[in-house]
Write a structure and sequence with these properties.
The complex is a heterodimer of chains A (about 280) and B (about 325). Chain A is mostly helical. Chain A has a single domain, classed as MetI-like fold, CATH 1.10.3720. Helix content of chain A is about 70%, strand content about 0%. Chain A is built from eleven helices and no strands. Chain A has helices at about 15-35, 35-40, 70-105, 110-125, 125-140, 140-170, 170-180, 185-220, 230-240, 250-275, 275-284. In chain A, helix 1 (about 15-35) packs across helix 3, helix 1 (about 15-35) crosses helix 10 and helix 5 packs across helix 6 (about 140-170). Chain B is α/β, with parallel strands linked by helices. Helices cover about 30% and strands about 20% of the residues of chain B. Chain B has helices at about 40-50, 75-80, 105-115, 120-135, 140, 150-165, 180-200, 210-215, 235-240, 245-250, 290-295, and strands at about 5-10, 15-25, 30-35, 60-65, 70, 85-90, 170-175, 200-205, 220-225, 225-235, 300-305, 305-310. The radius of gyration of chain B is 20 Å and the shape is globular. The two termini of chain B are about 30 Å apart. In chain B, about 45% of the residues are buried. The chains are: A mainly alpha (about 280), B alpha/beta (about 325). The interface of A and B includes residues 9, 172, 181 and 282 of A.
Chain lengths: ~280, ~325
């Protein structure tokens, strides 16, 4: 009875070099997206006929596009669009998926079967196809893209949450809560969801990367941000015309998408390793 | 009587693993419910909590009278308000009975928040008081810890505090110390008995340890294969057990100064509840079995005010 307390464990990311670099990249990206208009060297829509399709130089770090607009400034402001759209969409998706998955997993029955059938159906289509159809119905523009991307990823989070809840339902501490006379609502939101959250958050991190690609694809098709608002997808789309004259116009936003997604995936993988704290806690 | 269970029968479809259980317990009393694994002790507890539905079972007969109300006919919503509020359950495994994501103090507060609508400060004060009652050192600090930071004994104290938080009238302790070290077991049991006596609770102590029963309980009910085979006050049972099974269980208690090799077990195995022997379920393992024991199920008979036995031979060789 003398020592009742073991030393407390904290969530710790394994600090490997790629993880740190990827993490720093994401921080840099988020900061520049938030501060976009202030730190961009030029206005994103400032046209200058004298410097059309100019190669990267000290004046224009990433060169200029067909209207003489500074590509770096457009990448920075475009980051704001891409990140806010994909994060908002995945956020909606996670919140809805958590509630739907929790209800399905906890109560089961007819609602569960109907919802799961619909979700299995949506899984037989590629996300891009679902998103395209949805944007066609809702209409182009950022709102349409956010809703489309959110729905495209909904199935994933609903399934994941449902599986987690079904597993956790068998835990003794859930029985203990039932024995205390806790209501279904209390058990779901105080006990099941907090315990189911970790893997869902990791999946959300990885899905944000996917969502950036999806958003860029929709932008490439001209369904996302409308000109002159820059988005990485739309920039690539307009760059295709100058592919041989000014390749940087398409390569730079392409690299931005690729690097962001890779960075998100690396950090997501590191999270998978470290967020496993529920099992670690049980061993101790 | 605060709780009296009359001829309780629990069934899963047409299969009835618990038949004809009659027990009662009053405030300030401790009833020991004793038997080997699979005798239906825990299932009886589940029925008292009104949770048979969770394991797809149901009450197929008999009554559970709790403070004048028959729990077997209460609607679920009403039953939920009794659980944790008027009937508290202490489970076997403290290692897994606590939510790993919630501070233990908050978990103790749950019952008082759910059932009594206590606000933050009042619930906190109550949790700290309860932790002091279950002998947790430095309760303010332990309140902020997570389950994985506590030892098994401490976790079981937390589980007991959780069960007490709703200020129940009846406490069901289902093998509360099975998972703990022997030294901690004794402390926890002593603490439980003290709490029951001070607060005037009724407690059903489910155990397979006759030693614990002898030290703590007022009355004992011995279960075998889903039936009560003997019911008596602790004094008369340990002075003169009537059922051969009870005698054998008492014979299994190790005593100080016993010579090596003198501790006897009960021969044979508990029969599977799906394939019970004919007649008295205990006859294949009973050293005194007669022909009648193979043929007829013995009726439960009362001997005096204190003792009841389900054995054909009871009363014959006294």
């Amino acid at each position: 009875m003398t020592t009742i307390v073991s030393e407390s464990r904290r969530l710790r990311l394994p600090a490997s070099v790629p993880t740190v670099v990827a993490g720093l990249f994401i921080v840099l990206l988020v900061v520049s997206a938030v501060l976009a208009p202030t730190i961009a060297p030029y206005a994103y829509d400032a046209q200058n006929i004298e410097v059309m399709n100019e190669a990267p130089s000290f004046a224009h770090f990433f060169g200029t596009d067909e209207f003489g607009r500074d590509v770096l400034s457009r990448i920075i402001v475009g980051a704001q669009t891409s990140l806010s759209v994909s994060v908002t969409a995945v956020g909606f998706s996670v919140l809805t998926g958590l509630v739907l998955g929790a209800v399905c997993g906890y109560f089961g029955g007819l609602v569960d079967r109907i919802l799961m059938t619909v979700i299995d159906l949506t899984w037989s289509f590629p996300e891009i196809l679902i998103a395209l159809m949805l944007v066609a119905v809702i209409g182009a523009g950022l709102h349409g893209v956010i809703i489309a991307v959110a729905i495209a990823y909904l199935a994933q989070f609903t399934r994941l949450t449902r599986t987690q809840v079904i597993q956790l339902k068998k835990e003794a501490y859930i029985d203990a809560a039932v024995n205390l006379g806790a209501s279904d609502f209390h058990i779901l939101f105080r006990h099941l969801l907090p315990n189911a959250l970790a893997p869902v958050l990791v999946a959300a991190m990885l899905a944000t990367g996917d969502a950036i690609i999806l958003e860029a694809t929709l932008g490439f098709f001209g369904l996302g941000a409308q000109p002159p608002t820059p988005s990485w997808g739309a920039m690539m789309s307009s760059g295709t015309a100058q592919l041989f004259v000014a390749p940087w116009v398409i390569i730079i936003p392409g690299c931005a998408v690729a690097l962001t997604v890779i960075a998100l995936n690396i950090v997501g993988d590191a999270l998978i390793d470290s967020l496993d704290f529920r099992n670690k806690a049980r061993e101790g | 009587m605060l709780l009296s269970v009359e001829k309780l029968r629990i069934a899963f479809g047409s299969f009835a693993p618990v038949k004809d259980v009659t027990i009662s317990v009053d405030r300030g009393e401790i009833l020991g419910l004793v038997g080997e694994s699979g005798s239906g002790k825990s299932l009886t507890a589940t029925a008292l909590m009104g949770l048979l539905g969770y394991v797809n079972g149901h009450v197929a007969g008999g009554r559970i009278l709790f403070d004048g109300e028959d729990l077997t006919c209460l609607p679920e919503e009403h039953m939920r308000r009794l659980r944790g509020r008027r009937i508290g359950l202490i489970t076997q495994n403290p290692m897994t009975s606590l939510d790993p994501m919630i501070r233990v103090g908050k978990q103790i507060e749950q019952a008082s928040r759910i059932h009594m609508g206590l606000d933050g400060k009042a619930a906190y004060r109550k949790a700290v008081d309860l932790m002091r009652d279950v002998r947790i050192p430095d309760p303010q600090r332990v309140h902020t810890l997570y389950p994985h930071q506590l030892s098994g004994g401490m976790k079981q104290r937390i589980v007991i505090a959780m069960a007490l938080a709703g200020e129940p009238d009846l406490l069901i302790a289902d093998e509360p110390t099975t998972a703990l070290d022997a030294t901690v077991q004794a402390q926890i049991i002593r603490n439980l008995v003290e709490l029951v006596k001070i607060r005037g609770l009724a407690m059903i102590l489910i155990t397979h340890d006759m030693g614990v029963v002898a030290q703590t309980c007022d009355h004992v009910a011995v279960m075998y294969c889903g039936r009560i085979v003997e019911r008596a006050s602790v004094g008369s049972m340990f002075a003169e057990a009537a059922h051969p099974y009870t005698q054998a269980l008492i014979g299994c208690i190790p005593r100080n100064g016993m010579r090596p090799g003198t501790l006897v077990g009960i021969p044979g195995m508990v029969p599977s509840t799906a394939a019970l022997p004919s007649g008295c379920s205990f006859h294949p393992r009973c050293s005194k079995a007669h022909t009648i024991c193979h043929e007829c199920v013995p009726e439960f008979r009362q001997f005096g005010r204190d003792v009841g036995v389900a054995c054909h031979l009871a009363g014959q060789y006294e």
